[in-house]
Amino acid sequence: MSRSVLVTGGNRGIGLAIARAFADAGDKVAITYRSGEPPAGFLAVKCDITDAEQVEQAYKEIEAAHGNVEVLVANAGVTKDQLLMRMSEDDFTSVLDTNLTGAFRVVKRANRGMLRAKKGRVVLISSVVGLLGQAGQANYAASKAGLVGFARSLARELGSRNITFNVVAPGFVDTDMTRSLSDEQRSNIVSQVPLGRYAQPEEIAATVRFLASDDASYITGAVIPVDGGLGMGH
To answer: Keywords, A to Z (predicted)?
Structure first.
């Protein structure tokens, strides 16, 4: 059956690959985006997830077109990398407000329909950095680590309602952001990855789609690394 799926930050990179994976499976896919032109083929809703009113309005638009959201992928995120001594309070709080509190906003709103339906799938996109740490990314790592505690708490809170909460922790992925790095930076990153390469966005998307499938109905509170072995043991 075609489900109502929402992917936040689904206009590029990993989010777009996830949206395409669900659409290819026949689901009705909505995406949120904050700026730029959204890709064709999806119900694209402009929404800044740091604004609760915009989140509410986005859900109303999606529910009117596709019905209650049955699968939510909280993918939207930002970075403001800086060494701690130079990191401003805004650098820290704005990253947490998007990556962690933004996830809270979209999950809480989706939960309304999922509770009524007594079923739902939520997948939060974290990062290997949230588990492994990274110099210059204390704000980003804190926000991504926070998603793990958030998901596991909700897995315990709402498991009896047949709503699952899982986390996918990608490693370094071949996207526009990583392509902008110098050849030396890219080589240095790859040298740390046991599989010796970047992930493709489609590899992250395949894991997300699995966690939202019937085959994963008994998986909740899990953190699934898709990182080529970079963060093993964390």
So the answer is: Fatty acid biosynthesis, Fatty acid metabolism, Lipid biosynthesis, Lipid metabolism, NADP, Oxidoreductase
